C-alpha cells in the first residue's frame, strides 16, 4: 500500500501569484491538497510546513511529514522553478518504525500562458536518502499539470464563490492506482484532478482525485503582512479504502523580495 506524501510545499497560501492587467495582485488560499497544481516557482518565495495524519495509509499509527520549499524562477516573464525537500520521517517513536530523517528532493518548472493558464512539469523523489530503493515512499514520480481560474465578474476575487480553480494533470509513481502499483518501476501515467472553490474569505473547499483515491479538505490562510502568511489545512482521504484518514497541515510562507514583479507599473 502507498504511503501518503502530503503536498504541503506549494503551501496553503499562494501569495500575489496571479498576474493582473493593472498593478494589483491577488492572494488566494491553496487550490490543491495532494495533487501538484500548475502554480509556483516564484523567485524569493520560501515556505516551510508540517503535516500530521492520525494514521498511515497502510497502518494504524499516527505519522507526520515536513518540508521546505523555495521558488527560484519567474513563470510570468520566463520560467518558474520550484525546489523542495520532503522529510518523510520526523519521529522514530510514531508512524513508520526507524524512519527519522528519511526524505527526498523534488523539482518542477512552470509557466504562465495567456495570463490565465499555469502549466507545470516536475519530478517528485528525484533523489532520496535513508530509504531502500524499492521502498514505496521512494517512488520516482514524473508529472505534468495545468491550472486555470474561472473568475466570477460579480464577486470580488477571494470572497465566497468568487472563482473556481481547476487543476488537471497526470503522473506516474505515487500517482498510480493501487492495482497498477509496483515497487520496481514508476509505471505509466495516471490522471489526477482537483477543484477548489472559496467558501469563506481566505478559505477554499477542495475535492480531488489523486490518481488512486478521493481527497477532500479545507485550506485557509492568515495574512501576517504583504509578504508573509500562515496556512492551515484539513484533509480527509482514503475514501475508496473505506478507512478514512485525517490529516492536519500547518505552513508558513515568506517572500524575500522587496517587490513582486506584478507590483511594478507597466
TrEMBL record:
Its ancestry begins with: Bacteria, Pseudomonadati, Bacteroidota, Chitinophagia, Chitinophagales
Q: Does the keyword Signal apply?
A: yes
What keywords would UniProt list here?
Signal
What is this protein's record name? Outer membrane protein beta-barrel domain-containing protein
Any signal peptide, and if so, which residues?
A: 1-19
Query: What species does this protein belong to?
Result: Chitinophaga tropicalis
Amino acid at each position: 500500500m502507498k504511503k501518503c506524501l502530503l503536498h504541503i510545499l506549494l503551501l496553503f497560501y499562494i501569495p500575489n501569484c496571479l498576474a493582473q492587467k493593472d498593478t494589483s495582485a491577488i492572494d488566494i488560499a491553496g487550490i490543491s491538497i495532494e495533487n501538484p497544481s500548475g502554480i509556483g516557482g516564484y523567485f524569493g518565495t520560501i515556505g516551510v510546513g508540517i503535516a500530521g495524519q492520525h494514521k498511515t495509509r497502510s497502518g494504524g499509527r499516527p505519522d507526520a511529514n515536513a518540508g521546505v520549499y523555495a521558488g527560484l524562477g519567474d513563470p510570468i516573464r520566463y520560467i518558474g522553478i520550484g525546489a523542495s525537500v520532503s522529510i518523510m520521517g520526523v519521529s522514530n517513536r510514531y508512524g513508520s518504525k526507524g524512519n527519522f530523517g528519511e526524505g527526498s528532493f523534488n523539482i518542477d518548472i512552470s509557466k504562465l500562458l495567456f495570463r490565465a493558464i499555469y502549466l507545470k512539469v516536475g519530478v517528485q523523489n528525484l533523489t532520496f536518502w535513508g530509504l531502500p530503493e524499492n521502498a514505496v515512499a521512494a517512488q520516482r514520480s514524473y508529472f505534468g499539470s495545468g491550472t486555470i481560474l474561472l473568475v466570477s465578474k460579480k464577486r470580488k476575487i477571494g470572497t465566497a464563490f468568487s472563482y473556481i480553480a481547476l487543476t488537471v494533470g497526470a503522473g506516474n509513481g505515487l500517482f498510480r492506482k493501487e492495482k497498477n502499483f509496483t515497487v520496481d518501476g514508476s509505471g505509466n501515467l495516471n490522471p489526477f484532478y482537483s477543484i477548489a472553490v472559496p467558501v469563506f474569505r481566505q478559505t477554499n473547499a477542495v475535492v480531488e482525485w489523486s490518481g488512486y483515491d478521493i481527497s477532500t479538505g479545507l485550506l485557509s490562510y492568515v495574512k501576517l503582512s504583504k509578504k508573509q502568511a500562515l496556512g492551515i489545512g484539513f484533509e480527509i482521504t482514503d475514501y475508496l479504502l473505506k478507512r478514512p484518514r485525517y490529516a492536519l497541515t500547518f505552513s508558513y510562507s515568506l517572500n524575500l523580495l522587496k517587490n513582486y514583479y506584478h507590483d511594478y507599473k507597466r
